[in-house]
Write a structure and sequence with these properties.
The chain contains 9 helices and 2 strands. It is mainly α and 278 residues long. The protein has one domain. It is globular, with a radius of gyration of 18 Å.
């Protein structure tokens, strides 16, 4: 299993890194659309749909992403200029941020189930803002997008090792029995150290220091919430992984569960600062 995980991870990085740094912006938007389309197919599995409907959902999700990129290339940085602050972009990020920051604590507490149209709406709030953030933040700089990825990776790694070494108290035993409060504290510490180092070395002028000190723990908490949400949905659906398209890692949703919550919030904060600065 470990060998399979390592091989799959190396193959994913072999695709991600060259694409991230060398693909034209429009091609990157299409590539991410295909990736999110697979996640849409997996979302149909969480809804309990039959295979034919799942495939249709994945195709529709990918086509909507491609359609948005084609209708407003300036918003994704694929035109002559980069104009990221279109009203529909703010609306999409705003709804996503409200969902994760305001609604999600109640969702996890009451353990609501996905049903009918609400399941499709929630899926849209997860998938489309994630696609858009991956495209827009890459248009700012591939290093910016990679740095946000690394925040989530650092949270996962620090939580894992802190939980294994110090874990005593369960964080959400009815949702994800393996997660501990000590692991969450480790994630907060790990992300804080990484984020401050990042500000000192790579992005000293990106945000004022007080905002970094507020944003880093908030992003850590949102990252953990995204992970818990997918764990809840899989538990309700009676499955261990969202799919098996990534051997040793499960599915696409298993790999981006924390990114679906973190990336849109980062992009929303970034756009808000752009608006204030303008």
């Amino acid at each position: 299993m470990l060998k399979t995980r390592v091989i799959t991870a190396l193959l994913m990085m072999a695709v991600l890194l060259p694409s991230l740094f060398w693909l034209p912006q429009a091609a990157w938007a299409w590539l991410v659309a295909a990736f999110i389309g697979v996640a849409g197919w997996e979302w149909g599995g969480l809804l309990g749909w039959a295979e034919a409907r799942r495939r249709l959902l994945g195709l529709v999700v990918a086509l909507i992403c491609v359609g948005l990129a084609s209708l407003d290339p300036l918003a994704i940085g694929a035109g002559a200029t980069f104009a990221p602050g279109a009203p529909w972009v703010f609306a999409l990020y705003g709804l996503s941020t409200a969902f994760w920051c305001l609604l999600m604590p109640f969702w996890l507490r009451h353990k609501w189930a996905l049903t009918g149209v609400s399941g499709l709406l929630v899926g849209g709030l997860l998938l489309f803002p994630t696609w858009l953030a991956m495209v827009q933040l890459r248009a700012v700089s591939p290093l910016v997008l990679l740095a946000v990825f690394a925040i989530v990776w650092m949270a996962d790694i620090a939580a894992y090792f802190a939980g294994r070494r110090f874990g005593r108290h369960k964080l959400a035993p009815s949702i994800s029995p393996g997660k501990t409060r000590e692991g969450a504290y480790g994630a907060l510490l790990g992300v804080a150290l990484y984020g401050l180092l990042l500000r000192q070395t790579a992005f000293p002028d990106l945000l004022p220091l007080p905002w970094w000190l507020l944003l880093l723990p908030a992003l850590t908490a949102i990252s953990i919430i995204g992970d818990l949400f997918e764990s809840l949905l899989k538990r309700q659906a009676g499955i261990k992984d969202s799919s098996h398209v990534l051997p040793g890692h499960g599915g696409v949703l298993d790999r981006i569960d924390s990114l679906t919550s973190t990336l849109p919030v980062v992009a929303f904060v970034w756009l808000c600062f752009l608006s204030v600065a303008a």
